[in-house]
Design goal:
Number of strands: 12
Structural class: alpha+beta
Largest sheet: 8 strands, mixed
Distance between the termini: 4 Å
Radius of gyration: 20 Å
Order of helices and strands: EHEEEHEHHHEEHEHHHHEEHEE
Strand content: 25-35%
Helix content: 25-40%
Mean pLDDT: 95
Shape: globular
Low-confidence stretches: none
Length: 336
C-alpha cells in the first residue's frame, strides 16, 4: 500500500502568539487569523514486507534506517517523525518519504504542516478516523515534547482546513472559522499578495518563549502590546468579512509595528531594509511570517503596483516565492 498526503503551509495575518498555551487563557481567549498558501508539504508512506522503517527527507537531505519501531530512539532532525510513529504505532514496516517546498526556517509552519500530513497518512494506514480535532491536539502535544517549551496551534489548521481561517482559543478548546467560505477573499487578496523569503532562517521556539516570558513577567509594555494585537485580530476579522481591504492593509501594518517590539530579534536591520524598499515602491503593508527574526514575509500592494514592489523587494535581498492563497487543505491518495 502507498499513501500520499499533501498539505499547504500558511501565512499568518494577525493574532500570532495568542495561539500559545496558556497565554490565550491570560487574555480571556485568543484570536488568530491565517491563510493557506500554495507552498506544500508532502508525506508518502509505502508499506514493506519486513519490519524495517526508512525515513528520507529530500529537503533536509537526511536519511535513516531503523530495524523496527521498537528499536526507534527519537532524536535529531527527524524527531517529529519519530514521535508521530511512536504515537500512531503502525503495525508494519514502512518507507517514509517527506518533502517541504518551503525554504529552511521559513516561518510558514513547515514542520507543523509535515506533521499534519504524516499524522493523516498514519491514521489512514492504521485504520483510525482522520479526525482533524484529534490530529491537531496530538500534533501540538508532540511538538511541545520535541521543542521543550509551550507551542502555539495556529500552524496546524491551514494544512488540514485550507482557506482563510479565524481561529479562536479559549477555556473550552478551539474553534476554526473559515472566513473564505463566507466572503470573496481569495481572488482579491491573491491580486495583492506577495510572499518573499528574507534570506535568513528563523527559529520560532526561542522567540515565542521570549514573548511568553515577557508577558508573564510584565516586561516593558509587552502586556499592552498583546492586548492591542488581540484587538487588531478582532478588527481584521471584521475587515475581511466585509472585504474592506484598506482597513486590512492598515491593521496588518499596525500588527507588525506592535509585534516587532515584543521581543529582541523579531525584526533585524536586513528585514527593516526589505520592508522599507517595498514601501518606497508603493507597498501598503508588510509583515514577517511566524515569530520573526527571518524567514518569509508577506507584502500587500494594489495590483498595478505589485510588479514594482516585487522588483524592489528582490533588489533589497528578498527572494520572491511563487505562492498564492489556496482554498483546499489536506489531499490524501491511496494506492494498493
Amino acid at each position: 500500500m502507498q499513501i500520499t498526503a499533501t498539505v499547504p503551509m500558511r501565512v499568518d495575518l494577525a493574532g500570532g502568539t495568542l495561539d500559545v498555551y496558556p497565554l490565550y487563557l491570560f487574555e480571556g481567549g485568543g484570536l488568530t487569523l491565517n491563510a493557506a498558501v500554495s507552498i506544500n508539504a508532502t508525506v508518502q508512506l509505502s508499506t514493506r514486507s519486513d519490519r524495517r522503517i526508512t525515513i528520507a527527507s529530500s529537503d533536509l537531505h537526511e536519511r535513516q534506517e531503523i530495524a523496527s519501531l521498537d528499536a526507534l530512539e527519537p532524536g535529531g532532525p527527524l524527531t517529529l517523525v519519530h514521535y508521530a510513529l511512536q504515537y500512531y504505532r503502525p503495525d508494519c514496516g514502512l518507507d517514509i518519504s517527506i518533502n517541504s517546498e518551503a525554504p529552511i526556517g521559513s516561518g510558514l509552519g513547515a514542520s507543523s504542516a509535515l506533521l499534519m500530513a504524516l499524522s493523516a497518512a498514519l491514521c489512514k494506514l492504521t485504520g483510525r478516523p482522520i479526525a482533524y480535532d484529534r490530529i491537531i491536539d496530538v500534533g501540538a502535544n508532540i511538538e511541545a515534547q520535541v521543542i521543550g517549551i509551550p507551542t502555539g496551534k495556529q500552524d496546524y489548521f491551514p494544512p488540514l482546513y485550507g482557506g482563510l481561517c479565524s481561529l479562536w482559543f479559549g477555556l473550552d478548546g478551539w474553534q476554526c472559522e473559515r472566513l473564505s467560505d463566507t466572503a470573496d477573499l481569495v481572488g482579491p487578496l491573491n491580486e495583492r499578495l506577495i510572499v518573499s523569503y528574507t534570506g535568513t532562517p528563523h527559529s520560532s521556539a526561542v522567540t515565542n518563549w521570549a514573548m511568553l516570558k515577557g508577558y508573564i513577567e510584565k516586561q516593558g509594555n509587552t502586556v499592552e502590546r498583546i492586548h492591542e494585537i488581540k484587538a487588531i485580530a478582532q478588527a481584521m476579522r471584521t475587515a475581511l468579512q466585509q472585504v474592506d481591504l484598506e482597513s486590512f492593509y492598515r491593521l496588518l501594518d499596525r500588527e507588525w509595528q506592535l509585534r516587532r517590539g515584543l521581543a529582541e530579534g523579531v525584526s533585524t536591520p536586513a528585514i527593516d531594509a526589505i520592508v522599507a524598499a517595498g514601501q518606497r515602491a508603493g507597498a501598503a503593508a508588510s509583515k514577517i511570517c511566524g515569530a520573526g527574526g527571518g524567514g518569509c514575509m508577506i507584502t500587500l500592494a494594489e495590483p498595478p503596483l505589485v510588479p514594482l514592489v516585487k522588483t524592489a523587494l528582490a533588489s533589497a535581498g528578498a527572494t520572491i516565492l511563487p505562492a498564492t492563497l489556496v482554498s483546499h487543505g489536506l489531499e490524501l491518495t491511496v494506492r494498493d
